[in-house]
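Batch manifest, entry 17 of 40.
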Amino acid sequence: MNRPVTTLFMLMSVDGKISTGPTDDFDFDKDLPNVPGVRDGLHQYYQIEQTTDLWSLNTGRVMAKIGANVLASPKMTPVSFAILDNTHLTKAGVRWLCAKAKQLVLITSNARHPALSVDAHNLSVLYQEKPSLLTALGRLHTEFGCERLTIQSGGTLNAAFLHKKLIDFVDVVLAPVLVGGADTPTLVDGAPLANASELKGLGILELVDCTTLQNSYLRLRYRVMS
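Output type: C-alpha coordinates
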Protein backbone atom coordinates (compact mmCIF):
# COMPACT_ATOMS: atom_id res chain seq x y z
CA MET A 1 0.00 0.00 0.00
CA ASN A 2 1.31 3.44 -0.92
CA ARG A 3 1.77 5.77 2.03
CA PRO A 4 3.47 9.07 2.84
CA VAL A 5 7.17 9.27 3.66
CA THR A 6 7.17 9.78 7.43
CA THR A 7 9.52 11.65 9.76
CA LEU A 8 9.34 11.43 13.54
CA PHE A 9 10.21 14.95 14.74
CA MET A 10 10.49 15.67 18.46
CA LEU A 11 12.16 17.77 21.13
CA MET A 12 13.96 15.43 23.52
CA SER A 13 16.13 15.62 26.63
CA VAL A 14 19.53 13.96 26.71
CA ASP A 15 17.99 11.02 28.59
CA GLY A 16 15.29 10.59 25.95
CA LYS A 17 12.35 12.26 27.72
CA ILE A 18 9.74 14.22 25.76
CA SER A 19 8.00 15.73 28.79
CA THR A 20 8.99 17.00 32.21
CA GLY A 21 6.78 14.55 34.11
CA PRO A 22 4.38 11.59 33.90
CA THR A 23 1.01 13.39 33.69
CA ASP A 24 -0.60 15.92 31.38
CA ASP A 25 0.14 18.61 33.99
CA PHE A 26 3.75 18.50 32.74
CA ASP A 27 4.74 19.70 29.29
CA PHE A 28 7.97 20.74 27.56
CA ASP A 29 6.31 23.70 25.81
CA LYS A 30 5.00 25.03 29.12
CA ASP A 31 7.84 24.08 31.45
CA LEU A 32 11.15 24.45 29.59
CA PRO A 33 10.78 28.23 29.07
CA ASN A 34 11.06 28.47 32.87
CA VAL A 35 14.27 26.43 33.14
CA PRO A 36 17.54 28.45 33.17
CA GLY A 37 20.17 27.00 30.88
CA VAL A 38 17.52 25.48 28.62
CA ARG A 39 15.12 28.29 27.75
CA ASP A 40 17.66 30.43 25.86
CA GLY A 41 18.09 27.86 23.09
CA LEU A 42 14.52 26.58 22.99
CA HIS A 43 13.49 28.89 20.15
CA GLN A 44 15.67 26.89 17.76
CA TYR A 45 13.34 23.89 18.03
CA TYR A 46 10.34 25.99 17.05
CA GLN A 47 12.26 27.54 14.17
CA ILE A 48 13.11 24.08 12.82
CA GLU A 49 9.51 22.98 13.37
CA GLN A 50 8.40 25.66 10.91
CA THR A 51 10.45 23.94 8.18
CA THR A 52 8.95 20.46 8.59
CA ASP A 53 6.38 18.82 6.29
CA LEU A 54 3.11 20.50 5.41
CA TRP A 55 1.26 17.52 6.89
CA SER A 56 1.55 16.87 10.63
CA LEU A 57 0.19 13.86 12.53
CA ASN A 58 -0.68 14.08 16.18
CA THR A 59 -3.23 12.85 18.73
CA GLY A 60 -6.31 14.37 20.27
CA ARG A 61 -4.71 13.88 23.67
CA VAL A 62 -1.79 16.13 22.76
CA MET A 63 -4.11 18.70 21.21
CA ALA A 64 -6.29 18.73 24.33
CA LYS A 65 -3.16 19.04 26.45
CA ILE A 66 -2.13 22.24 24.65
CA GLY A 67 -5.61 23.67 25.11
CA ALA A 68 -7.47 23.00 21.86
CA ASN A 69 -10.75 22.46 23.73
CA VAL A 70 -10.64 25.79 25.55
CA LEU A 71 -8.46 28.25 23.62
CA ALA A 72 -9.73 31.07 21.46
CA SER A 73 -9.75 30.51 17.71
CA PRO A 74 -6.17 30.52 16.33
CA LYS A 75 -4.80 31.87 13.09
CA MET A 76 -4.83 29.47 10.16
CA THR A 77 -1.49 27.94 9.22
CA PRO A 78 -0.39 26.40 5.89
CA VAL A 79 -0.08 23.02 7.64
CA SER A 80 -2.65 20.23 7.29
CA PHE A 81 -3.28 18.03 10.32
CA ALA A 82 -4.07 14.35 10.69
CA ILE A 83 -5.33 13.78 14.23
CA LEU A 84 -5.93 10.40 15.85
CA ASP A 85 -8.58 10.72 18.53
CA ASN A 86 -11.41 8.82 20.17
CA THR A 87 -12.29 10.70 23.35
CA HIS A 88 -10.04 13.69 24.07
CA LEU A 89 -11.36 16.35 21.69
CA THR A 90 -14.64 18.16 22.20
CA LYS A 91 -16.65 19.84 19.45
CA ALA A 92 -14.93 23.10 20.42
CA GLY A 93 -11.54 21.38 20.10
CA VAL A 94 -12.38 20.11 16.63
CA ARG A 95 -13.48 23.60 15.57
CA TRP A 96 -10.23 25.04 17.00
CA LEU A 97 -8.24 22.62 14.85
CA CYS A 98 -10.35 23.44 11.79
CA ALA A 99 -9.48 27.11 12.33
CA LYS A 100 -5.78 26.28 12.60
CA ALA A 101 -5.35 23.72 9.84
CA LYS A 102 -5.36 24.13 6.10
CA GLN A 103 -7.00 20.71 6.09
CA LEU A 104 -8.02 18.58 9.06
CA VAL A 105 -8.37 14.83 8.80
CA LEU A 106 -9.63 13.32 12.04
CA ILE A 107 -9.10 9.57 12.35
CA THR A 108 -11.30 7.83 14.92
CA SER A 109 -12.82 4.55 16.01
CA ASN A 110 -15.51 6.37 17.97
CA ALA A 111 -18.77 6.26 16.00
CA ARG A 112 -20.06 9.15 18.14
CA HIS A 113 -17.02 11.39 17.94
CA PRO A 114 -17.93 15.12 18.20
CA ALA A 115 -16.19 15.75 14.87
CA LEU A 116 -19.05 13.96 13.11
CA SER A 117 -21.36 16.82 14.06
CA VAL A 118 -19.01 19.63 13.01
CA ASP A 119 -19.71 21.28 9.65
CA ALA A 120 -16.46 22.70 8.27
CA HIS A 121 -15.25 22.87 4.68
CA ASN A 122 -11.74 21.67 5.59
CA LEU A 123 -12.75 18.79 7.89
CA SER A 124 -12.79 15.12 6.90
CA VAL A 125 -13.47 12.27 9.33
CA LEU A 126 -11.97 8.84 8.68
CA TYR A 127 -13.86 6.29 10.72
CA GLN A 128 -12.06 3.02 11.42
CA GLU A 129 -14.01 0.31 13.20
CA LYS A 130 -10.71 -1.52 13.62
CA PRO A 131 -7.81 0.97 13.98
CA SER A 132 -5.03 0.54 11.42
CA LEU A 133 -2.13 2.96 11.11
CA LEU A 134 -1.17 1.56 7.71
CA THR A 135 -4.69 1.99 6.33
CA ALA A 136 -4.90 5.50 7.74
CA LEU A 137 -1.59 6.47 6.12
CA GLY A 138 -2.69 4.90 2.86
CA ARG A 139 -5.89 6.93 2.81
CA LEU A 140 -4.03 10.13 3.64
CA HIS A 141 -1.84 9.43 0.62
CA THR A 142 -4.51 8.38 -1.90
CA GLU A 143 -7.46 10.54 -0.84
CA PHE A 144 -5.75 13.70 0.37
CA GLY A 145 -2.49 13.79 -1.59
CA CYS A 146 -0.26 13.58 1.49
CA GLU A 147 3.22 12.73 0.21
CA ARG A 148 5.28 13.53 3.31
CA LEU A 149 4.13 13.48 6.92
CA THR A 150 5.75 14.66 10.15
CA ILE A 151 4.81 12.63 13.23
CA GLN A 152 4.71 14.68 16.44
CA SER A 153 3.05 12.45 18.96
CA GLY A 154 3.56 10.70 22.27
CA GLY A 155 5.84 7.81 23.07
CA THR A 156 3.14 5.12 22.95
CA LEU A 157 1.94 6.03 19.46
CA ASN A 158 5.54 6.49 18.32
CA ALA A 159 6.17 2.91 19.43
CA ALA A 160 3.19 1.69 17.41
CA PHE A 161 4.55 3.39 14.29
CA LEU A 162 8.00 1.94 14.93
CA HIS A 163 6.79 -1.62 15.45
CA LYS A 164 4.69 -1.43 12.27
CA LYS A 165 7.80 -0.21 10.38
CA LEU A 166 6.03 3.02 9.48
CA ILE A 167 8.79 5.52 10.36
CA ASP A 168 11.24 6.43 7.60
CA PHE A 169 13.27 9.19 9.26
CA VAL A 170 13.91 10.45 12.79
CA ASP A 171 14.68 14.12 13.41
CA VAL A 172 15.29 15.10 17.05
CA VAL A 173 16.35 18.33 18.67
CA LEU A 174 18.30 17.46 21.81
CA ALA A 175 17.87 19.87 24.71
CA PRO A 176 20.77 20.14 27.21
CA VAL A 177 18.84 18.76 30.17
CA LEU A 178 18.38 15.52 32.10
CA VAL A 179 14.80 14.96 33.26
CA GLY A 180 14.66 11.50 34.80
CA GLY A 181 11.64 9.67 36.13
CA ALA A 182 10.80 6.07 35.25
CA ASP A 183 7.24 7.02 34.27
CA THR A 184 8.10 10.17 32.34
CA PRO A 185 7.29 9.68 28.62
CA THR A 186 10.20 9.00 26.29
CA LEU A 187 10.60 9.25 22.54
CA VAL A 188 9.41 5.64 22.14
CA ASP A 189 7.46 3.93 24.91
CA GLY A 190 5.05 1.01 24.69
CA ALA A 191 5.62 -2.49 26.03
CA PRO A 192 9.23 -3.63 26.54
CA LEU A 193 10.72 -6.54 24.62
CA ALA A 194 9.49 -9.85 25.97
CA ASN A 195 12.57 -11.83 24.98
CA ALA A 196 15.73 -11.73 22.87
CA SER A 197 13.88 -13.05 19.81
CA GLU A 198 12.16 -9.68 19.52
CA LEU A 199 15.43 -7.82 18.90
CA LYS A 200 14.58 -7.85 15.20
CA GLY A 201 11.92 -5.29 16.04
CA LEU A 202 14.45 -2.66 17.11
CA GLY A 203 14.63 0.51 15.07
CA ILE A 204 18.14 0.61 13.57
CA LEU A 205 19.21 4.10 12.53
CA GLU A 206 21.76 5.55 10.11
CA LEU A 207 22.99 9.04 10.96
CA VAL A 208 22.26 11.51 8.18
CA ASP A 209 23.32 14.73 9.86
CA CYS A 210 24.43 16.09 13.22
CA THR A 211 24.20 19.84 13.71
CA THR A 212 25.51 21.72 16.73
CA LEU A 213 23.05 24.47 17.57
CA GLN A 214 23.44 27.39 19.94
CA ASN A 215 23.18 27.13 23.72
CA SER A 216 24.37 23.47 23.79
CA TYR A 217 21.46 22.14 21.72
CA LEU A 218 21.97 19.47 19.04
CA ARG A 219 19.93 18.41 16.02
CA LEU A 220 20.26 14.73 15.08
CA ARG A 221 18.79 13.41 11.85
CA TYR A 222 18.58 9.68 11.05
CA ARG A 223 17.31 7.36 8.36
CA VAL A 224 15.49 4.32 9.74
CA MET A 225 17.21 1.23 8.33
CA SER A 226 14.91 -1.43 9.81
